[in-house]
Every structure is written in C-alpha cells, then in structure tokens.
Design brief:
- The structure is a single chain.
- By secondary structure, this protein is of the alpha/beta class.
- It has one domain: FMN-linked oxidoreductases (TIM Barrel, Alpha-Beta Barrel), CATH 3.20.20.390.
- It has nine helices and eight strands.
- Strands 1-2-3-4-5-6-7-8 form an eight-stranded parallel β-barrel, surrounded by six helices.
- β7 (187-191), α7 (197-204) and β8 (209-212) form a beta-alpha-beta unit.
- The protein starts with 12 loop residues before the first strand and ends with a helix.
- 42% of the residues are buried.
- The protein binds SN-glycerol-1-phosphate.
- SN-glycerol-1-phosphate (1GP) is lined by residues 16, 165, 167-168, 191-194, 211-215.
- SN-glycerol-1-phosphate is lined by residues 16, 165, 167-168, 191-194, 211-215.
- Homodimer.
- Belongs to the GGGP/HepGP synthase family. Group I subfamily.
- GO terms for molecular function: transferase activity.
- Mg(2+) binds at residues 18, 44.
Length: 236
C-alpha cells in the first residue's frame, strides 16, 4: 500500500487563494513570505485550468508549500505539493459527495499522485455562503446532528481531514471546540471570517489548521497578522 505524505499535519496556518480573484505581485509576495505553513489554491466558482496554472506559477517563485483544492475537474493541474479533494458531507446532493469526484476519477484516476492526495470531509456551516448555495448544503444545527456528521467523517469514513467551513463569516467556536473533542484521527481544518489576529487565535485554540481566505483580498495587513497569532496560540 502506498504511504500518504501527510504534510498538512504540520500546518497550523494556511492562506487560501482564489484563482478567480486578482492579487497584486506585492500582495502575493507578502502572503508567500508571511511565514504561513502553506498556500492552498481553491475557490467555489470560476476556477479553471488557465487561472489555476497562472496562480500556481506565480506562487512557485517562492519556497512556500503550495496545495491545490480540486473542486472542478477542469482545474486539475499537475505540479502542486499536495492535493485536496473535498467531499461535502452535509450536502443534499450526492453529486457533491462522490458524484463529481467519481466522474473526475474516470478521467484522471490513472494520473493522480495518490500519496500526495487527501480527501477532506467538508461541513459547510454558513448557509448564506456561495459554497452552501452551490452544493445545496444545510448547516446541521443541534449538537447531536453535528456530532453525527463528525462520527461519519472520523469514525465511519475515516477521512484524514474534517473541514469546518464558515466561508465569509466567523463561526461558532463552541462548535469547533466540540468537533475537536469528538475527532479521534482526523485533522481539523477551520476556515471562515478570520480577519483579525484575535479571531485567528480563537480558532487556533481548537482547530489543528486555521485557514484565512477573504481577508487577504479585503484587509491584507490584518490577514498577515493572523500568521503569528495562530503560531503563538498553538504554542500555549
Ligand atoms: C474559504 O475556509 C476558507 O474556503 C476561508 O474562509 O474566506 O471567510 O476567510 P474566508
């Protein structure tokens, strides 16, 4: 059996950059030199081969680890350090759980670097986000439903990563805290609404990996301050 290279297990902080959004060379330089553990390339819409290759080659000028979250088969680009394949666990449409992924595997299965490829069990908690609308996801509300989804991801499916996704809004840290307590083997990713060092530190108390997206585009200085905040918080 092939060994997984689980480089993401070392990541406390990552920036997520969207190939469909513009970023200046200066801003990209600041992100790549920030001390973050990784840059993840991914987005919910408008991501294609060309804009993914373009962003990858710009990031590749730096030493920072660079991963691709493959959410569209058109954007499967070779040359990244690691690949994530999202499975949306709280979607109402099987298409987003295994349908699109299986279709992509028909095409690319033989070429996938499996040892650098990891499934992520997504739980989308922000019903107003583009990701929720696109995938027809509804946030589980009560504690029992949330725990059931975590059991599904961590114990039954034994997914290596569970991603609590609040994309666009800062989430309920009590949910993140409880998720961390339920998980036995999965790495916990948290992303959503982190635009200050303080929010980053709060998320870092419970999540193994804190992911910052929009703030890079909306308030770069604040986004950069999250790197140290996360690294300091995880030393406590
Ligand atoms: C999005 O989880 C990431 O997939 C980050 O969320 O853009 O709200 O920071 P934000």
């Amino acid at each position: 059996m092939q060994q997984q290279s689980a480089i993401y297990k070392q990541w406390k902080h990552a920036f997520k950059l969207d190939p469909d959004r513009e970023i200046s060379d200066e801003a990209l330089d600041a992100v790549c030199m920030s001390g973050t553990d990784a840059v993840i390339v991914g987005g919910s819409s408008g991501v294609n081969y060309d804009n993914t290759v373009e962003l990858m080659s710009r990031i590749r000028r730096y030493e920072v680890t660079c991963a691709l979250e493959v959410s569209s088969e058109d954007a499967a680009v070779p040359g990244f350090d690691h690949y994530f394949i999202p499975l949306v666990l709280n979607t109402e449409h099987a298409e987003w759980l295994t349908g699109r992924q299986t279709r992509a595997l028909r095409r690319f299965g033989a070429f996938i670097p499996w040892e650098q490829t990891t499934a992520e069990g997504y739980l989308i908690f922000n019903d107003g986000s583009e990701a929720a609308r696109l995938t027809g996801s509804q946030a589980p509300h009560d504690a029992e439903s949330i725990t059931a989804h975590l059991y599904m991801a961590d114990r039954l499916m034994r997914l290596p990563v569970v991603y609590i996704e609040y994309s666009g809004m800062f989430g309920d840290m009590e949910i993140v805290r409880r998720a961390r307590a339920v998980l036995t083997q999965a790495q916990l990713f948290y992303g959503g609404g982190i635009d200050t060092a303080e929010k980053a530190a709060q998320a870092a108390k419970y999540a193994n990996t804190v992911i910052v997206g929009n703030a890079v585009y909306d308030s770069l200085e604040a986004a950069l301050s999250t790197v140290k905040a996360v690294h300091d918080a995880s030393l406590v």
